[in-house]
Amino acid sequence: MDFKILGPVSVRSNGRFRSISAHRQRKILAAMLVDPNRPVSTSQLVEVIWGEDPPTTAVQQVQNCVGALRRCLSEMAVEAELTRMSSSYFLELPVEQIDAVRFRRLCTDVQVRARRGDLKEASHTARRALDLWSGEALEDVGSDALAPAATRLEELRMGLVEKYGQVELARGNNAGVVVEFSGWVTRYPYHENLHGQLALAMHHMGRTAEALHVLQSLQSRLRAELGIETGAFVERVHRGLLASHEGADSRSGDLTVTAEALHLLRSALDQLKVVAELLTGSRSPHPPVGAIVAPRPMVADTLDHDGPRRAGGGRGTAERAS
Question: Whole-model pTM above 0.70?
Answer without folding.
Answer: yes
